[in-house]
What does this fold into?
Amino acid sequence: MSHLEIQERFGRKAYYLNEEMLNIIGQEFEASKIVEAFKSDKKPAIFKNWGNKAAKRTIELSTDPKYTDRTYEVMLEMFKKKGILKFPNIIQRFFEILYMATNPQEEYQHLKCLENNSMALRYQLKKGQCAIFEKLIEICGKDVASQLPCKNYCLEVAETILKDNDIANYIVTQDLEMPKDGVCKFNIVKS
It folds into this structure.
């Protein structure tokens, strides 16, 4: 059975991630809360603030022994023994947990990684997979959503995950945007 067939059959459980952890993150960083906060003051910095909090909370919960899974434990062991896997593998895991917990399960199956090696991590979310963008359209309208103020959330998530894991010398960029490209594509590249 392929990875995608397993995911289709078992959903989030296919990753063996703790459901309680995913539910906590999903509730604390539910898209409508974030977009309503933005709607009330219209400052894109709101998304940056929420992105920072979401990244920190994801790291906190997913590294808590109460919630860790065997995959994380093996990656961490390899990092401690050989100094490998922290970037990109452990870092990618934080993105997967956060996006899985906060995006619609029927659309979001897994983080689409386009590149994963010691020099770069490139990933994307396509239309329908990003709850924040969809809520932005619903609550604030297409005109506001077309300006993509929510990109500050995803960019800050990436910056915070790197910083809080002592990963230096990487640059975070976005080169595709949902309103015009149908996907948001992010790049974390060694500088």
Summary: Residues 3-190 form a domain with the Muramoyl-pentapeptide Carboxypeptidase; domain 2 fold (CATH 3.30.1380). The mean pLDDT is 90. DSSP finds ten helices and four strands in the chain. The first helix runs from residue 3 to 10.
